[in-house]
Amino acid sequence: MRAAAIEVEAGLLEAAARALGDEARHGSPEQTARRWPACVVVALARVAGASDRNGTFWPGWHRVAGLRATRRSAQQWGQAFLAALGLLGIAPPAAPDTAAAPGTPAAPGTAAPDTAAPDTALARAAILAQAQPQDAGPEPAVAGAAHPRAPRLDPFGRGVLLAERPALPEEVADPADPLLVFDVNGEPAGAELPAEPVWVLHPAQADLRSDVPPRVMVTSRLPLTWRGWRLLQLDLRGLSWLELAGRAGKDETPRRHLVRGRSRPGLVTGPPVPGVTAGTGEPVFAAPPAVLLPPGPDGWRVEVRRAGTSAVVSSLTAAGDGWRPERVWDRVTRPVLGELTVTVTAADGESRPGMRRSLTVAEGLAASYFPAPRLTTDRGLEPAEAVLAAPSGMTVSPLAAPVPAGAVTIEVTCVAAQVRQRLRVTPPHVRIRIEPEPGSQGVPTRWHHAGPLMLATPDLWHGGALSIDLPGIDRDPPVEVVGEDGNVVQVLEPTRLGRYPLRRMADTVSARGGASLRITIGGRTAVIARITAPDGAADPWITATG
């Protein structure tokens, strides 16, 4: 492809540049390049070939594309240009030496010889793109070899890139520690890893180790040149460190990559048992928590006691290096049940930050409900049933309990060994309230679940929105406005925030003299609100303009 040799009328070039600018405003320059690589290459190459020697390329490109220059826009378009070259299978020309032979492209700020190759504009654009330009000033001169760039990752196809070209493992991986970590944007994560999702590349024959098993979010593919490597997206939240071990033929001690923010002990809990609480509403966890210690040789004393008593459940001393979070429970009778207080202090008496936390555990307890969620009836919430399952060594009474209409919560008792724990079970149910008008000084009403919410037409004219909480339902349902004759007279779809503005139905309800609001979930229909029209209630807009 000879970008400079393609004849493009000035008007067509300007139209193409403006179209690319419009595309980039709705996405990004790189996304635009992926969709229209040939257009990006030709348009940028032609603008580069037409720019003068005074550093007007990037300002000229922003002007012809109808874009506002920002601190990073030139760099983003430069990277997009290189990406487009890669998609078209074109290697970007190398930056010229100061003693370049005739026919090589001129560096920015120097005159191009008359004997320049036909694709000088393409070469000039590629050199400008690799120069990491700044929008506010002239293009930086490029002399000698280009500065090395840090690798970046395209996790969904192209793999590891160097200056937007595919990189080989030996170019970017350290043989002594071939673990590569990138953040969610594909940039190198740095020496200290972030406590968030990251992309991890490592040889498949090596094992990843950490103090807490990370959650694997995505397993992705790599190019054929990375055969024998794995690419995973891991969630590092809750981890202290990550390392690569078990490399074939390697006896060195693996390098431990620390996770940011782990300078003090911590506690990691699993998900709570849904709908089950203790005391005044504290969650109940179905597994004992993992105790995390900061990495290093410092010693820590870890102790677990029954909350409010002096009864010790577990007590030990250990250093952060080599610590296993589950070790604190090794000699504890299972299943674990009850309110516990976990304390971690410095074993040597120094004033290092420690940790103290109380929580309730019912190890192995599970709960299910039918129907879920409970909807409203004229008598309150519809009847439901709660079914609990306990592991061997624990009893629950009752295991299956009906929840009568109108009741919200029931109580059960768990027993394990000598521990007796009372728990509250609340099956998930619908809740309704009115949110205030945006920008007003109003506050939301209290959540309502005891039968349909009672409203009047003046409430609709005052504004605000109906908010519906439906646990376990991932899509807000439409709300049907039903007239006194039982016919649906209006259907309200939720806003982007999942709200139903009251004024949308004000005219309809006023004209009908009242209405009911109902929803349908899983084939079950429920009236969530009733709206009355008091005699003499007038439309405030008609009154104000009458």
Which regions contain 5 or more consecutive residues with pLDDT less than 50? 1-5, 95-119, 132-147, 539-546
Order of neighbouring strands in the sheet with most strands: 16-15-17-18-13-12-26-25-23
Oligomer: single chain
Strand content: 25-35%
Average pLDDT over all residues: 82
Class from secondary-structure proportions: alpha+beta
Rounded Rg: 33 Å
Helix content: 10-25%
Q: In DSSP terms, counting alpha (H) and pi (I) runs of 4 or more, how many helices?
A: 10
Our count of domains comes out at: 5
Shape: flat
How far apart the termini lie comes to 72 Å
Main sheet makeup: 9 strands, mixed
Question: What is the topology?
Answer:
Layout: H1 10-25, H2 29-35, H3 37-50, H4 57-65, H5 73-87, H6 120-130, E1 152-154, E2 159-162, E3 165-166, H7 169-172, E4 180-182, E5 197-203, E6 207-210, E7 215-220, E8 229-235, E9 241-245, E10 256-258, E11 266-268, E12 272-278, E13 282-285, E14 290-292, E15 299-306, E16 312-319, E17 337-346, E18 355-362, E19 366-370, E20 376-377, E21 380-381, E22 384-389, E23 394-397, E24 400-403, E25 410-416, E26 419-425, E27 431-435, E28 453-456, H8 457-461, E29 465-469, E30 479-482, E31 488-492, E32 499-501, H9 506-512, E33 514-521, E34 524-532, H10 540-545
Parallel strand pairs: 13-18, 28-34
Antiparallel strand pairs: 1-2, 2-3, 4-5, 5-8, 6-9, 7-8, 9-10, 11-14, 12-13, 12-26, 15-16, 15-17, 17-18, 19-22, 20-21, 22-24, 23-25, 25-26, 27-29, 29-32, 30-31, 30-33, 33-34
